[in-house]
Every structure is written in C-alpha cells, then in structure tokens.
Design a protein that fits this description.
The chain has 199 residues and is mainly alpha-helical. It folds into two domains: 157 residues, Butyryl-CoA Dehydrogenase, subunit A, domain 3 (Up-down Bundle); 39 residues, no CATH class. 67% of the residues lie in helices and 9% in strands. It is built from nine helices and three strands. It has a three-stranded antiparallel β-sheet. Strand 1 and strand 2 form a beta hairpin. The longest helix is centred in the middle third of the chain and has 27 residues.
Amino acid sequence: MIRRARLIAVLTMLLAGAIGVIGSTQTWVVVTLVQGAGEGLLVPGADAVPVLTPLSLAALALGAALSITGLVVRHIFGALGLAIGGVLVALTAQVAFATPVSAYAATVTAATGITGTESVAALVGSTATTVWPFLTLVVNVLLLAAGVFTIVTARRWSSSADRRYRAAAANATVDASGSRPHDAIDSWDDLSRGDDPTA
C-alpha cells in the first residue's frame, strides 16, 4: 500500500482537478423565471461557484508537482490539497443541496438586467440542479481525502531520486573502502600495472 501511496495521491488530485475544470463549463442549475420564455436559463459551474476553475487548476498543478517533490514539500502540498478540497466541498455542497440565489444571480442578471439578491429571487419561479454539482462534490471530497492521505503517508514514500541518491552513496562507500568487486576493466588495469588480477 505504501509503495502505491504516491500514485494514489497524485492520481486523485489530478482526477479532482480535471473533473473540476470540466464541470466548470457544464450546466449546474437550470433556472425558470416566473415570467418569460419557457426555456430555462442555464447556469454553468463557473458562474455557480466562481472559484471552481482556478482552484481546480491549482489541484491539477498540485497533483502534477506532487510526483517529484521532497518530504517537506509533500506535506505543504498535502495541506494545500486539504484546504482546496475543503473550500470546494463547502461551496459545491451549497449549490448541490440548497442552491442559493448567489449561485444563479449573475446568469439571471445577464438575461434580465435586474440586480440585487431579493429582486433576482422574486424573478425566479423554480430551479433544477443537474448531476454536475454532485459529481464535483464527490471528487472534491476525494481531493480533501487525498490531502490528508498525503500528509499522513508522505514520510514513507520513496522516490526514484531517493533511490538514486542511496545507490550513489552506497557505491561511494564501497569505492572508498576498496572492497568493491573487480570487473573486467579492473582486471585489465591490474595486468597493465603488472599485478595478478587473480590474487
């Protein structure tokens, strides 16, 4: 499990970021006005939750960078993932379960020219929420969990850079002690110096 911890954290953050970016362009709420055309107004995720796109892009960047970071930065990125996930969970849950006026006010104002929370609310006959707020909420819960998971397991991750460093250090130690086994090139060097390589 620990060997796969880095992969799990990275893929979860990338997934949450990608779904968030895609979701920001999709319809989250369909608003039907009291008076007006029969077709409802379509509210995209970027209007329902204005910080969705930038925070989802930040999650994507965290996921990509997490695969090459050291221990201290892993903890920092885990905390950032936790914070981003927490903010997005709170905001998307509001749209998914309560659909506040602020989620669709900008779209109604653009269509009618009327501003103000109470005025916009008076214009709206009904709202219908699509699947996208719920889907985005789920992946943001996963993002929050990935942040916690990263913080908890980061110390036990191993990276290729760490393995290369340990291998280089071990080789340097062996070379310094002179106990490294000879290879064919070393045997030829011994012969050229007049030494018996079989000794």
